[in-house]
Amino acid sequence: MSDQPTKDAMTPEERHRERMQRKKELVDRKIARATIDRGVLVVNTGNGKGKSSSGFGMLARSLGHGFKCGVVQFIKGTFSTGEEAFFRRLAGDQLDYYVMGEGFTWETQDKARDIAAAQAAWKIAAGMLADPAYDFVLLDELNIALVKQYVQLEQVLEAVAARPPRQHVVITGRGAPNGLIAVADTVTEMRVVKHAFEAGIKAQKGVEL
Amino acid sequence: MSDQPTKDAMTPEERHRERMQRKKELVDRKIARATIDRGVLVVNTGNGKGKSSSGFGMLARSLGHGFKCGVVQFIKGTFSTGEEAFFRRLAGDQLDYYVMGEGFTWETQDKARDIAAAQAAWKIAAGMLADPAYDFVLLDELNIALVKQYVQLEQVLEAVAARPPRQHVVITGRGAPNGLIAVADTVTEMRVVKHAFEAGIKAQKGVEL
Question: Which CDD domains match (chains A, B) (predicted)?
């Protein structure tokens, strides 16, 4: 109770300042404790929107810092996508961009072809993970290929563990295997609260496409 | 039981094709039902990583489609961010980009200044929402300003409802108010499974910055 009179004498502005000062000290202490500086493995999973688009946002950040970047898209619909047009147009040789999947599995309806496409995509990806020239690697929808066992988890875990220590890797897609989550640094589950598609709204350019 | 013998006679490839054909019919029916074609309101919320980066990924998609885009960042740390460098460098007059916040509330420690900055940012945002020239508008971290009531929810709901029918709007930040979720078309909660920062890893350029 002893400091109560003092508190009462404070203006709302002073109280705000005091609260924010305490918060700043807390945040600063947390920042001071985070001293490890190395490449991270980020996994975006779950059924909600934002897994791939968040990966492409990080790609934009990385390009903004002048990083050499690699992208492999493991599954691609037959639609043309805005991000491909955009990043290809302007990134020049700062970016290597591969679209390997020939479409969703229910479009090709040919398992052997899907496996061959996934393996070809993985070969490119493994090359990037082994190459210290790449600062940032986005493996879009790799989780789908892992769930279907078109690419083996052990191959991915090995390549990720052996990668250059400063290289960031982002892996997206539903159903990230537990073994991948275990070795990742940052994992987010994108949870659907609601989705426009379920309300009868078409996939929209700039948002989904 | 009557078609059991036929199924048994199918090769694994035929069974895969049949399963995928059924899936394709299901997906195609869903796509056929989604006939509404208009601008959508997307909200990214929750405590996990990916809310802003997903917004910037959608911005890249929109720019890739040649859309006129607007970005207002309501809260900005003192660090320089890769996405700002990247998008400013190359988008030219296809993009208007405003960074309005002067830092996190615990950095400024000045509530009146924070409110003034949020209000100035909202004024720019409201102008974009009223302007049919903008196809895509990203209001990054607006939810934070709403939670703190530096911007009033009623103002935002009104501006969003009155916007041009083809305009897409993406609003990000923790703690999206229920009133905003109610009118949004697509809402994702980014849920933390784990975060590198909690394991003592510094915020990384290209990933967080």
Answer: CobA_ACA
Q: How many CB atoms lie within 10 A of CB A15?
A: 12
Residue A107 has pLDDT above 90, yes or no: no
**Which residues lie below 8 Å from residue B46, measured CB to CB, with a gap of 6+?**
A191, B174, B188, B189, B190, B191, B192
- Domain A39-192 superfamily per CATH: P-loop containing nucleotide triphosphate hydrolases (3.40.50.300)
Q: Flag whether residue A193 sits within 8 Å of chain B, measured between CB atoms.
A: yes
Sheet bearing A186-194, strands edge to edge: A95-99, A69-73, A136-140, A168-172, A41-45, A186-194, B186-194, B41-45, B168-172, B136-140, B69-73, B95-99
Instruction: Note the ipTM here.
Output: 0.85
Residue A149, Ramachandran bin (φ over 0: left; ψ between -120 and 50: alpha; else beta): left
Please state the rounded mean pLDDT for residues B48-69: 94
- Chain A to chain B Cβ contacts (< 8 Å): 290
Is B111–A190 a contact, with Cβ atoms under 8 angstroms apart? no
pLDDT tens digits, residue range B128-175? Answer: 999 999 999 999 999 999 999 999 999 999 999 999 999 999 999 999
Strands A168-172 and A186-194: unpaired
Q: Compute the radius of gyration of chain A from its Cα atoms.
A: 22
Residue at token pair 């290809």 = A88
What is the C-alpha separation between B40 and B138, in angstroms, rounded? 12
For the packed helices B82-91 and B51-64, what is the interaxial angle rounded to 10 degrees?
10
Confidence band (pLDDT; 50, 70, 90) for B103?
low
In the DSSP assignment, the letter for residue B189 is E
- Chain segment A42-83, per-residue pLDDT in tens: 999 999 999 999 999 999 999 989 999 999 999 875 445 778
Chain A interface, best mutation among B30, B204, B208, B209, by max A CB count within 10 A: B204
For the ranges A101-115, A118-132, B138-152, the lowest mean pLDDT is seen at A101-115
Contacts of B68 (CB under 8 A, 6+ apart): B94, B95, B133, B134, B135, B136
Pick from B50, B185, B205: CB nearest A199 = B185
Answer positive or negative: Cα dihedral of B78, B79, B80, B83. Answer: negative
Q: How near does any CA of chain A get to the CA of B25, in Å?
A: 9
The domain spans of chain B are: 1-35, 39-199
CATH superfamily of B39-199: P-loop containing nucleotide triphosphate hydrolases (3.40.50.300)
